[in-house]
Amino acid sequence: MSWRELSPEALEREYSPRLLVPELQPYLDRYAELSAAARAALAVERDLAYGASADEVLDFFPAAAPAAPVHVFIHGGYWRLLSKDESAFPAPAFVQHGACFVALNYALAPAASLDEIVRQCRSAIAWLYRNARRLGGDPERIHVSGTSAGGHLVAMLLADGWQAGFGLPRDAVKGGCAVSGIFDLEPLLRCSINDTLRLDAAMARRNSPLFLPPRPGAALAVVWGEVETGEWKRQNLEYASACGSAGIEIPGRNHYDVILDLADAGSRLGGLALAQMGLNPP
Fold first, then answer.
1. At a CB cut-off of 8 Å and minimum separation 6, what does 138 contact?
2. Residues 242-282: pLDDT tens digits?
3. Which of 143, 149, 268, 270 pairs with 279 at a CA distance of 20 to 30 A?
4. Is residue 174's pLDDT more than 60?
């Protein structure tokens, strides 16, 4: 059955992943606890401004050696929740294997439109490309990952055609992992989340990665948890197919804990992200 044939109540359920877990808060608490531990254990430059607004900041965790690849993590929260402060939990796995790690902040809806959120993330990549070297990173080896709304933003960074407007080469982002993302925003026009996002049909279309193919040659992994709604799985499968990527379902994981595997170099997701940067774990 097409999503267009679903009742309003069924469509709302399909685009409410929190209904598949007993409680959401323990996952958010875990992100925050692990992120605080990462900041306590590692060197980090906090609140580096990549843009003019207070929300356009990032935390940069340098690798031990200079000229290291840079991995940028983009948080989820349906574009309306969370921040970089809950986004440092994968940093130890990347730093220990020779990469710099970036926890990216962006403005949230409804204060910011989705157009503006996408612009901010692209602006952050442009800033990193120009500043990575002085921070200890290699601007020619920038990779990205993100979950849920962050998975969508990863796909928007891998899309082709925006780079010239920011003074970047087409391959400024070498690859990424889009985890449990949403890639066609049209169904959201019929869901209550749009009371916050305030999308119209044109904005939904121009921000739908399904219709914005990745740059040719970009490394892309599309990953999701086994415990996702049917619509969420369909979105990930459809985007992976459109990009010629092998979609990967992680057994036993749900929409909120699948991204915790990024902090584990021995997991399929963590190992894949490191391998994209040529940093295979032992």
1. 67, 68, 69, 70, 132
2. 999 879 999 999 999 999 999 999 999 999 999 999 997 64
3. 149
4. yes
The strand order across the sheet containing 137-147 reads 45-49, 57-61, 100-104, 68-74, 137-147, 173-179, 219-227, 247-254
Residues 189-222 pLDDT 10s: 999 999 999 999 999 999 999 999 999 999 999 9
Backbone angles phi, psi at 264, to 5 degrees: -120, 105
DSSP state of 191: S
Torsion sign, CA atoms 259, 84, 163, 100:
negative
Residue 205 token pair:
């279309």
Set out the domains of the chain in order of their start, with CATH numbers.
Answer: 3-276 (3.40.50.1820)
Strand, coil or helix: 183: coil
